[in-house]
From TrEMBL:
<dbReference type="InterPro" id="IPR013328">
    <property type="entry name" value="6PGD_dom2"/>
</dbReference>
<keyword id="KW-0520">NAD</keyword>
<dbReference type="GO" id="GO:0016491">
    <property type="term" value="F:oxidoreductase activity"/>
</dbReference>
<dbReference type="Pfam" id="PF14833">
    <property type="entry name" value="NAD_binding_11"/>
</dbReference>
<dbReference type="Pfam" id="PF03446">
    <property type="entry name" value="NAD_binding_2"/>
</dbReference>
<dbReference type="GO" id="GO:0051287">
    <property type="term" value="F:NAD binding"/>
</dbReference>
<keyword id="KW-0560">Oxidoreductase</keyword>
<dbReference type="InterPro" id="IPR036291">
    <property type="entry name" value="NAD(P)-bd_dom_sf"/>
</dbReference>
<dbReference type="InterPro" id="IPR029154">
    <property type="entry name" value="HIBADH-like_NADP-bd"/>
</dbReference>
<feature type="domain" description="3-hydroxyisobutyrate dehydrogenase-like NAD-binding">
    <location>
        <begin position="162"/>
        <end position="279"/>
    </location>
</feature>
<dbReference type="GO" id="GO:0050661">
    <property type="term" value="F:NADP binding"/>
</dbReference>
<dbReference type="InterPro" id="IPR015815">
    <property type="entry name" value="HIBADH-related"/>
</dbReference>
<feature type="domain" description="6-phosphogluconate dehydrogenase NADP-binding">
    <location>
        <begin position="3"/>
        <end position="157"/>
    </location>
</feature>
<protein>
    <submittedName>
        <fullName>NAD-binding protein</fullName>
    </submittedName>
</protein>
<dbReference type="InterPro" id="IPR008927">
    <property type="entry name" value="6-PGluconate_DH-like_C_sf"/>
</dbReference>
<dbReference type="InterPro" id="IPR006115">
    <property type="entry name" value="6PGDH_NADP-bd"/>
</dbReference>
<feature type="active site">
    <location>
        <position position="166"/>
    </location>
</feature>
Length: 290
C-alpha cells in the first residue's frame, strides 16, 4: 500500500521505517526540518501538501496534542480520496478524537484510533502494544500493517475506546514513577544505599517489567528521556480531565501531576518523567547519592 506518515518524531519515524521494511511504499511529512532530514537519512521520501494525502491508501499520524490531530484530520478530510484509511497513533483526548471522526465521516475516510504503548526504543524494535478502536472490518484489513509495529494487538470497540485505554495505561505508568519516588526517598533518607535499593526492589515482588526496565537506567542516575516530564504532564492532564468527565476520583493521580509540575519548576521538564524521583528527594532534603 501507499502509506503517508504525518509526524516523523521519536515514535513516528521508526514506525515509518518498519512499514517500509514490511513492503509498503512510505512517504513522510513533518513540520520540523530536522525530523525530515532524519527521515531522508533513513531512506524515506519526503512528500508534503495535498497531493501526498490524495495519493495515499493509508495516512498514519503520530502527533503531539489535540490541536495537531484536528488540523491533520481536517486536511485528510479535505484532500484524501474516499476509502482512504486514516490511522492515528497519538495520545489525545476522547473529545478531540470524536471531533476528528465527525470531520472524516462525510469524506468517506475510514478512521482507526490506534494508540500505542511503549517508548521510542520499543518503537525502534517493533515491540509496541497497539490498542485499536474504530470500524472492525477496517481494523481487520489493516491488521497486517499494524502488526509491523508490534506483536501485541487489541481491538477494543467501534469508538473512542483506544483513546481511553491509552490513558488507563499511562495512569499506571505515571503512578509507578510516583511510587518509586517516595520509596527511594524513604530508603535513602533512612541510610539505604542507592544501588542496594534498586537491587532489592528489582528482585522483589514489586519488580514489575517497567520497574526493572527503568532500573537499568536509573541505577546510574541517568534521566535521559524516553518520555519527558512535560510529555507526561500533558497525558496526566488528559487523564484527570477524563476522570472528571466520568466522575471518577483519582486523588493519587492528581498528586502525581503536581510532582510533574514540581520537576518542571526545578528545571527537569525535558528530563525523563522519572525525574520526579529527584523532586521528591529534594523535598526530603536529599541531594544526589554519593
Amino acid at each position: 500500500m501507499q502509506v503517508h506518515v504525518v509526524g516523523a518524531g521519536k515514535m513516528g519515524l521508526p514506525m515509518a521505517v518498519h512499514l517500509r521494511v514490511g513492503g509498503h511504499a512510505v512517504t513522510v511529512d513533518d513540520l520540523q526540518p530536522e525530523r525530515l532530514a532524519l527521515a531522508r537519512e533513513a531512506g524515506l521520501p519526503v512528500r508534503q501538501g495535498p497531493d501526498a494525502l490524495a495519493a495515499a491508501d493509508v495516512v498514519l499520524s503520530s502527533l503531539p496534542h489535540d490541536g495537531a490531530l484536528l488540523a491533520v484530520a481536517a486536511q485528510v478530510a479535505s484532500h484524501a480520496s474516499r476509502g482512504t484509511v486514516y490511522i492515528d497513533t497519538s495520545t489525545v483526548s476522547q473529545e478531540a478524537s470524536a471531533q476528528a471522526a465527525r470531520l472524516l465521516q462525510p469524506a468517506g475516510v475510514q478512521y482507526l484510533r490506534t494508540t500505542v504503548s511503549g517508548n521510542n526504543k520499543m518503537a525502534e524494535a517493533a515491540q509496541l502494544t497497539v490498542m485499536a478502536s474504530g470500524p472492525r472490518a477496517t481494523h481487520q484489513a489493516m491488521l497486517p500493517l499494524l502488526q509491523l509495529l508490534g506483536p501485541q494487538q487489541f481491538w477494543l470497540g467501534e469508538g473512542e475506546q483506544a483513546r481511553l485505554m491509552k490513558l488507563v495505561v499511562n495512569l499506571m505508568i505515571a503512578q509507578t514513577s510516583a511510587m518509586l519516588a517516595e520509596a527511594l526517598a524513604l530508603g535513602r533518607k533512612g541510610g539505604l544505599r542507592w544501588d542496594d535499593l534498586w537491587a532489592v526492589i528489582g528482585a522483589s515482588a514489586v519488580g514489575s517489567p517497567i520497574v526493572k526496565a527503568k532500573g537499568v537506567q536509573l541505577v546510574q542516575r541517568d534521566f535521559t528521556p524516553t518520555f519527558t516530564v512535560e510529555q507526561m504532564l500533558k497525558d496526566l492532564n488528559l487523564i484527570v480531565d477524563a476522570a472528571a468527565a466520568s466522575h471518577v476520583p483519582v486523588p493519587q493521580t492528581a498528586a502525581t501531576l503536581q510532582l510533574m509540575h514540581a520537576a518542571i519548576a526545578q528545571g527537569d521538564g525535558s528530563a525523563d518523567y522519572a525525574a520526579i524521583i529527584k523532586a521528591v528527594e529534594r523535598a526530603a532534603g536529599l541531594g544526589d547519592p554519593p
